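ok so for the tutorial part 2 we go from a plain amino acid sequence to predicted structure tokens. step 1 is just haveing the sequence, like this:
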Amino acid sequence: MHSGLELQSRRRIYEFLSANPGVHLRRIGQTLGMSTGMLSYHLGVMERQGLLKSEAARHRRRYYLAQAFRPEQRLVLALLRERVPRTMMIDLATHGERTFADLLRVTGVTKSTLSYHLAKVVASGVVVRSRRDRESVFTLRDGSGVAHLILTLAPGIPDEAVGRFVLIWPRLQALRDRQAAALPLPVPSA
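step 2 — the prediction. this is what the tokens look like for a chain of 190 residues:
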């Protein structure tokens, strides 16, 4: 056992963050029943010992196991902790590319709210915006990487969309694999 985990409270925090990467201080405290002061102290000690890493993500500091995720993965995990970006990213992982109207329909938010969140995920580099005729089309920069992180977070996010994604993702992969296998092989040029 790592020397920083000799206290039961630190082990509980570590185990919780192992199962729930990218959670913010208040959520950790609520779930584990710890006061903000005590939790802040232990998180600080664990971060100084190299067990945890924290990053400011907009208005919150999010916590991760230090060696578990690369910086770009931590960015995706932070976005997946927010309902509207998570809904958009699940839809993009499922369908590949979507228009503004598609995302508006699936998120159920106002146009201005969707615009705000789209601007945020595009600026982060997680989602790419391109043009098709007169409309914007959005895709994930790394669809399989995002899908893997959604599946990683699934047990810790009580969201219907995540549950549906977990159920359909294996079928989508199998379908894509069959489609790829059915494509004719390129003919080598002489």
